[in-house]
Write a structure and sequence with these properties.
single chain; 796 residues; Beta-Lactamase; 5 domains; 5-stranded antiparallel sheet; 32% helix
Length: 796
């Protein structure tokens, strides 16, 4: 057979291409087949030497043809100028006398090359077809016939849409055929079609390209289809695993992690997925190991169905259900291996029938065909629960789960199990650290009159865990108050323990009544010692701290910082200012000094102390963060609690990624009639005058009931100041929640209690003061020291 270019589907025999040549080599006859094969019309060639058609030496080619018995391959010039090799057969003609009168030459393309090409097309392992420009079949090879489930003769010259049952499903294929004809350009695309059996969907890579004549005329469309179902499924599995790496375990929450598995697997892998965990895992505890030989109670933490209108499962989220030991989930739980099954299995049918589809699927057991995988969630050798994957087998999705699907489900379950275990461990550690930290934070602030305050503490909701932020309000002598805020480097239990140690140290140093800069110096030494003690463990210790002391008598405030953000002040007139403090080095650096900043705070000023976690949620630097804080402080608020909420609402639009401590303190000042001050000369005779001043002041305050004890305290303290301290000497009485008596002198030597012997003439004064008052102590000042004593008021 010879395929005639340009003839849509018509095939002719080689005899159709026929030429008659006389004894002189002149063409006397020219068939239509010869025209189609060579591109010359009869009028163009009749009467001309046949040698003009030959390429190369015509005489030699003609002699070779005749000497070979009339059969051979000869190169011929085509009408469009190209060189074509034709298989020729020359049959001699005789006249009535038996003399040679010419030849009849039949021609066809080279039979050997044509035959190999035909065989290659017909036997190709890929599906190959040829369509004309009107989308009618011209050729199909054996693979295409097998894929289509038809014989070539059944579809030849038929319009493609008329040869398929589901025209809608094949619309994409048809549109691509038309696109190649319209654009004249090849196309490549992937297709997902059903096999002829109707039981399996196959993936194809389709190549279509235009088929042109040597002159460039578009004759039709050729296509080749490469079946790549396994490669397609493998790519889908790899894509799903890649997506799992990003989508599963995004939070350290057990239940949320389980839901991420269900959301990922539906509908890519299954039509329904449920995740059930042991109660111990949900509670954050370690599951108890050991053999399982009876029914097991599991708690449903996640499920998801592909069909939006699918009936809900019998088990609600958060509810528990007892699974029989023969059910696929418990078999998977016991063996630690996936269980692949489907309806028709007696155990499955019996389980679904007895439990009304509980724990498995939302589909009622109305004899629907289900394929099921139960995959255990195992991490670090511990089984924590089971995931059940269900596929509803329908005409649209007829493939049951296979071993590749089981491998994929096991990979997803393994990753989920590790993330669930991490979340469980994190939750347990975070709960422990949070409980420890809250126990170390102030539970109730001691009473004082210097400031009104409100505070907020928010633990971090991040993988890093709870940090070491803290704050304190510490009453000091003379109605003063210390405001403290700090932040330990790191997170977790270690940071919480370090925070507790530093908080205790601050309270101890504050009790000594050290100035802010000196207190931070001692605290820095302590952190350095702690770091040296724990250096073998590899733990790093560092912290920031801000320590402020406010005196309500003078309105004076001294602030020192160790690497901590500066405080902000909202003044009574509504203006806000960031206090310019020397930041100083972080605690633990050592060798660098700390400096105190002093300022006057009018009554009603609000001092805002905080940790840098306040700015972390919005990723603000220190300057931008303090600017937003200042703006938030100006928002009207009925009280300090409302002001705290305003600040957090502005700066924390979401859960904090780092611990946040916020302390707002509104200053108060004592009225002048609540403080009495006398300067005394360093003369022993002034002791009596000091007692008289104190008695008269107590009478004016209506505190005659405590006059006797106060006279004794004043007498002892003033005597000691005159005898051992020296001028200037000052006596001050403060009426607050307690009656405070203070005596200042020029000596920096701190007094201490001692036991006087029987015949000692002195040494009993401070012991007497300690016995008569509720508290006493001393503090250093810039001019020397102050000894103070407090006693409860009669109505307290």
């Amino acid at each position: 057979m010879v395929k005639i270019p340009g003839d849509t589907g018509r095939a002719t025999t080689a005899g159709d291409a026929m030429v008659v040549v006389d004894a002189h080599g002149i063409v006397t006859g020219w068939s239509e087949g010869a025209r189609l094969l060579t591109g010359y019309a009869a009028a163009e060639i009749t009467g001309r030497p046949v040698s003009e058609l030959l390429d190369g030496d015509p005489g030699e080619a003609w002699r070779a043809l005749l000497t070979s018995g009339g059969n051979g391959v000869v190169a011929v010039r085509h009408g469009d100028g190209r060189r074509t090799e034709l298989a020729l057969r020359a049959c001699p003609l005789q006249d009535e006398h038996g003399e040679p009168s010419g030849y009849v030459i039949t021609a066809a393309p080279d039979e050997q090359g044509r035959g190999l090409g035909e065989l290659a097309f017909k036997q190709a392992s890929v599906s190959m077809s040829v369509f004309d420009t009107e989308q009618r079949y011209l050729r199909m090879n054996d693979t295409a016939c097998r894929v289509m489930g038809v014989q070539e003769a059944e579809v030849l010259h038929r319009y493609f849409p008329d040869t398929v049952e589901n025209a809608e499903h094949s619309r994409g294929f048809f549109n691509h055929l038309r696109k190649v004809v319209e654009t004249g350009r090849p196309v490549h695309y992937e297709s997902w079609t059903r096999a002829p059996s109707g039981l399996r969907m196959n993936a194809w890579n389709i190549e279509m390209w235009p088929l042109r004549s040597p002159s460039g005329q578009l004759l039709g469309v050729s296509l080749a289809g490469f079946e790549n179902t396994e490669q397609y499924r493998a790519r889908r599995r790899l894509a799903l695993l890649s997506k799992a790496a990003a989508d599963i375990g995004t939070t350290l929450d057990v239940i949320h992690t389980a839901r991420e598995l269900a959301q990922l697997a539906v509908p890519e892998l299954a039509d329904f997925v449920s995740v059930d965990l042991l109660d111990a895992v949900v509670a954050g505890e370690e599951p108890v190991g050991g053999p399982v030989d009876a029914d097991v109670e599991l708690r449903r933490v996640a499920h998801r169905s592909r069909a939006a209108d699918a009936p809900g499962t019998v088990i609600d989220l958060g509810a528990a259900e007892v699974y029989p030991s023969s059910s696929p989930p418990i078999r998977a739980l016991v063996t630690g291996h996936a269980v692949l099954t489907r309806t028709g299995d007696p155990d499955v049918d019996g389980w679904l029938a007895r439990h009304g589809t509980r724990a498995a699927t939302p589909y009622q057991p109305r004899r629907q065909n289900l394929s099921m995988m139960a995959v255990p969630l195992v991490a670090r050798g511990t089984t924590m629960g089971v995931a059940v994957f269900v596929r509803l087998l329908t005409a649209e999705r007829p493939d049951a789960f296979d071993h590749d699907d089981v491998s994929l489900a096991q990979e997803l379950a393994s990753r989920t199990a590790v993330c669930v275990d991490n979340a469980r461990r994190y939750g347990k550690e975070r709960t422990t650290a949070l409980a420890l930290q809250r126990s170390l934070l102030p539970q109730a602030m001691a009473g004082q009159a210097a400031v009104e305050f409100a505070s907020r503490y928010l633990p971090a909701l991040s993988r890093a865990g709870v940090g070491g932020d803290w704050f304190d309000v510490i009453p000091l002598s003379g109605t003063r108050v210390a405001l403290v805020v700090g932040d330990v480097v790191g997170h977790g239990i270690h940071a919480s323990v370090t925070m507790g140690r530093l908080r205790t140290a601050v309270w101890t140093l504050a009790d000594v009544d050290l100035p802010p800069d000196e207190l931070l110096t001692h605290l820095d030494d302590l952190v350095g010692h702690l770091a040296d003690d724990e250096s073998p463990t590899g733990a790093e210790i560092g912290a920031t701290c801000l320590y402020a002391v406010y005196d309500p008598v003078s309105g004076h405030c001294a602030i020192a910082a160790a690497g901590h953000p500066p405080p902000a002040v909202l003044f009574p007139d509504g203006t806000v200012k960031v206090v310019e403090v020397s930041a100083g080095p972080m605690l633990g650096v050592g060798g660098l000094p700390f400096e105190a900043t002093e300022l006057h705070l009018p009554e009603g000023s609000v001092l805002a102390l905080y940790t840098d976690g306040l700015f972390a949620a919005r990723h603000l630097d220190a300057d931008a963060g303090t600017a937003v804080l200042c703006s938030a402080l100006t928002v009207p608020a009925g009280n300090l609690d409302d002001a705290c909420d305003n600040v957090l609402q502005v700066l924390l639009p979401q859960h904090p990624t780092d611990d946040v401590a916020l302390l707002l303190a509104r200053t108060r000042t004592l009225d002048s009639d609540e403080v009495a001050v006398w300067d005394l000369p360093a003369d022993p005779a002034e002791v009596a005058s000091a007692r008289q001043y104190a008695t008269e002041q107590l009478t004016r305050w209506g505190l005659d009931e405590v006059a006797f004890v106060t006279e004794l305290v004043v007498s002892e303290l003033v005597t000691n100041a005159i005898r051992y301290g020296g001028a200037p000497i000052q006596l001050r009485l403060i009426r607050d929640r307690a009656l405070i008596c203070e005596v200042s002198d020029a000596s920096s030597t701190s007094p201490h209690l001692r036991r006087a012997h029987t015949f000692d003439e002195g040494g009993r004064g401070l012991l007497l003061v300690a016995q008569l008052t509720d508290r006493w102590g001393s503090r250093t000042t810039s001019a020397g020291k102050t000894i103070w004593a407090e006693q409860a008021l009669p109505f307290e």
